[in-house]
Amino acid sequence: MIDPVLLRTDPEAVKRSQRARGNDEAVVDQALAADEARRAALAEFESLRAEQNQFGKQVKAASKEEKPALISQAQALAARVKDAEARAKEAEALFGEIAMRVENIVIDGVPAGGEENFVTLREVGEIPGFDFEPRDHLELGELLGAIDMERGAKVSGARFYFLRGVGARLELALMNMALDRALANGFTPLITPTLVRPEVMRGTGFLGDHASEVYHLPEDDLFLTGTSEVALAGYHADEILDLAEGPLRYAGWSTCYRREAGSHGKDTRGILRVHQFNKLEMFVYADPAEAEAEHDRLVAWQEEMLQSLGLGYRVIDVAAGDLGSSAARKFDIEAWVPTQGTYRELTSTSNCTTYQARRLATRFRTESGKTAPVATLNGTLATTRWIVAILETHQRADGSVTVPEALRPYLGGLEVLEPLGRA
RNA sequence: GGAGAUAUGCCGGAGCGGCCGAACGGACUUCACUGCUAAUGAAGGGUCGGGCUACAACUCGACCGGGGGUUCAAAUCCCCCUAUCUCCGCCA
């Protein structure tokens, strides 16, 4: 939800943002009109209500003889109040509905346009070169006995898999390494529910355009989360936080579920795009004034992870039209995947400014003592997909894979993953 | 799965259908007093929104788990939902 005051005082800014996203700017005028109608209806209801409250006092004070007449008057008034209240509620709901359609105000400097209009901020690390024909991650995964897609499909269908042996260990190692980094940076670890109520799913903005991405359990009216961001955002819903000591940082560890509807035929090989995976997610509640600086910190922590793992990558500033509805700016880090000859997204970090918090009623106490919505930010610190880049980048001619040094402590000192036949 | 109880402000805890935004206690803030800490005395507080505006003051409305209803009037009566607790059963 955008700030209704901003809508009222600077509708041009809202329109500009809508344009940058390639969204309809007519909703801004609709929202403006709905806001005015809402306030008018509210004022009418409230003045009638005030009159009714006065009446109540008179009735109570009235003598036996006066009472019947007063009550019959009050009855008539009560009917009008009820009517006005209904209209006010309706106007309120209409405004809410229209205002919800306006996506978060894009931060100045975010490139306008669609998916292909991103700006590359920097490229870091080496693009690996091989003096042999590199194998893709699935071939390597099968050689190592680490990834089993066939049995995944047998048990659960397409886009499901088993991680086994060093594959399973590799994922846990990655997650644990990320957790240690998070702890070192002051994050509180949180293992989150992966089934959430509709309000929470809606509050985080995932039931808008991305509704078809989300698994729903109709029997229980619960949603399977595609990221722990959902539960982490809901964690402090309806609360007033104390941010005097700085931002609240959480690291959510959870399995993530995505339907991948509409991506049939895309990335069907291996574990690049799957229905279920694990992720360690950073989530921060911050003073809006600090949000952009915190966003930079989140990217920096992500980059440290990628660097430690010896992966070549680029950081991109995602274009406005490719942002989720809650994000005001998003940086993706894409790692080089040798057999695809291209960069693929490994992490994503979004600054949602106050958009999510306003929907979920998460506020903080400002210096003046007033409450104001917090800013929320999130970013990936590790996820199953990274295995793709790690295997491919560090492979050797014989199908073995060198374990990046930083990861070795989490694999019991293992330095090389050896193909099964030889190990 | 069955039966019952509870849900009030930062916390504890009252509350007859109008006098309740809500007693009382604690915590907190401010002031006074005490050589400091402590103790004591006094005062003050919530959230959301509208009007008006200097985002002040003022004023109006809403909020007693959530949603409906009854009534001139509901924290107080009725219905539904949710959560928590206790007991029985069932299963890890």
TrEMBL record:
The keyword Protein biosynthesis applies. It is found in: Cytoplasm. Its EC number is 6.1.1.11. ATP binds at residues 258-260, 274-277, 345-348. Pathway: Aminoacyl-tRNA biosynthesis; selenocysteinyl-tRNA(Sec) biosynthesis; L-seryl-tRNA(Sec) from L-serine and tRNA(Sec): step 1/1. Transmembrane segments: none annotated. One of its GO terms (cellular component) is cytoplasm. It is an enzyme of class 6 (ligase). Keywords: Aminoacyl-tRNA synthetase, ATP-binding, Cytoplasm, Ligase, Nucleotide-binding, Protein biosynthesis. Catalyzes the attachment of serine to tRNA(Ser). Is also able to aminoacylate tRNA(Sec) with serine, to form the misacylated tRNA L-seryl-tRNA(Sec), which will be further converted into selenocysteinyl-tRNA(Sec). Consists of two distinct domains, a catalytic core and a N-terminal extension that is involved in tRNA binding. This is Serine--tRNA ligase. It comes from Leucobacter chromiisoli. The lineage of its organism: Bacteria, Bacillati, Actinomycetota, Actinomycetes, Micrococcales.
